[in-house]
Design brief:
about 160 residues; Rossmann fold; alpha/beta; globular; seven-stranded mixed sheet
Length: about 160
C-alpha cells in the first residue's frame, strides 16, 4: 500500500487541496472518500469541482445518490453510498457503468467496496481531536496502481 498524508488546517485549505488534486485527474479515475460525518468529504469534492469551474453547482447527493456535472466534455459523477443498503442497489442504478464515463467521486465508497475496480484512490479524512478545523487527508493506493504518479505529483505540487 502506498500512502501520503496531507494536513488541511481549515476549509479554505481543503478547497485548495481538492482543486489541486482535481487538476491531476482524468476520465475513468475513481476516488473513494471515507470519513465520519462532517469530516470534509463534500467540501473536498467542492474543491474538485472548483478546478472545473463548477463550485457553485455542488450539492450533497445524500438523497439522490448521484449528482452529475459536466464541463468541457468532462463528466464528473459525485456518488453518496451512505444510504445504499448494499452493493446490489449500486448495481440497480447502473453505478458501475459510470466508472469509464468520467471522474467518479464516491463518498462512503467503503460500503460498496466489492463493486469497485481493483485500482482507485482511497482518501480517508480524519478530524484532528485538538483542532476542530484541522483535517488529515490520507491518500492510499495499491503499490502497483496507475495512480502513483498522481499522488507523487500532488505531494510535489503542495510542497
Amino acid at each position: 500500500m502506498y500512502k501520503i498524508e496531507i494536513i488541511s488546517n481549515d476549509t479554505e485549505q481543503t478547497l485548495k487541496l481538492g482543486c489541486a488534486f482535481a487538476s491531476l485527474l482524468n476520465k475513468g479515475d475513481i476516488i473513494v472518500l471515507t470519513g465520519e460525518l462532517g469530516s470534509g468529504k463534500t467540501k473536498f469534492v467542492e474543491g474538485v469541482l472548483k478546478n472545473f469551474g463548477l463550485e457553485d453547482e455542488i450539492s450533497s447527493p445524500t438523497f439522490t445518490i448521484i449528482n452529475e456535472y459536466t464541463k468541457n466534455d468532462i463528466n464528473i459523477y459525485h456518488f453518496d453510498a451512505y444510504r445504499l443498503e448494499d452493493s446490489d442497489e449500486f448495481y440497480a442504478i447502473g453505478g458501475e457503468e459510470y466508472f469509464e464515463k468520467g471522474i467518479c467521486l464516491i463518498e462512503w465508497g467503503e460500503l460498496i467496496s466489492d463493486v469497485l475496480p481493483k485500482d482507485y484512490i482511497h482518501i480517508n479524512i480524519n478530524k484532528d481531536e485538538t483542532n476542530e478545523n484541522k483535517r488529515i487527508f490520507c491518500f492510499e493506493i495499491n503499490d502497483d496502481s496507475k495512480y502513483i504518479d498522481v499522488l507523487n505529483k500532488l505531494k510535489e505540487d503542495l510542497n
